[in-house]
Amino acid sequence: MSEKAGNTTTRFSVFVLWIILALVYSSLCYDYIRAGNADKKLDDYLQYVVVVCGDDHRPNKEVRSLVLIRARDLKIDLHPDQVNIMGAGQSLKILVTYDVAINLPVIQKTIYQKVFDHKAQYRIIR
Question: Does residue 20 contact residue 94 with C-beta atoms inside 8 Å?
Fold first, then answer.
C-alpha cells in the first residue's frame, strides 16, 4: 500500500512541476509577443509621424516629444537619448534604438534582451 502512495506522490509532484514549467513558458512567450507587437505599433507610428511632421516643418524637439509620448503609451521604456532626429521638412529622419528585457516571472531575472532599431525617413505619399 505504501508503494502505491509513493507512486501517487511522485506523479503529483511531476504534474505540479509540468504546470509550473508551462506557466513560466507562457509568461516568457507573452512578454516576447507583447514586445514585438508594441514595437510594430511604434514603427507604424514613426512612419506616420515622419510624414506629418515633415509636411508641417515641426521642430525636432516636438517630434521627439511625440515619439516619447507614443512609446510611453505603448509601455516601451524609451529615453530621449535613444531617439535621434535629423533634418527637417522633406529631409526628416528619425532613428530609434532601444532594447526590451524578457524576464523570468516572480524573480524578475532577465534571461533575454531583444534590441529594436528603427529608421523612418520622409516619403511622399501618393
Answer: no
Sheet holding 83-86, edge to edge: 83-86, 93-103, 110-121
DSSP reduced 3-state for 103: strand
Place of cell 517630434: 63
Q: Using alpha carbons only, what angle is made at residue 89 by residues 88 and 95, rounded to the nearest 5 degrees?
A: 50
Could you report the per-residue pLDDT of 22-46, keeping only the tens digit for each?
999 999 999 999 999 999 999 999 9
Q: Look at the block and give the residue holding cell 505540479.
A: 16
Q: How buried is residue 80: exposed, middle or buried, by Cβ count under 10 Å (0-12/13-18/19+)?
A: exposed
User: Are 69 and 98 spatial neighbours (Cβ–Cβ below 8 Å)?
Assistant: no
Predicted TM-score (pTM) above 0.85: no
pLDDT digits (tens, 9 = 90+) for 68-116: 999 999 999 999 999 999 988 889 999 999 999 988 888 888 888 999 9
Question: Helix 2-56 vs helix 60-73: angle between axes, to the nearest 10 degrees?
Answer: 160
The CA distance from 71 to 83, in Å, is: 11
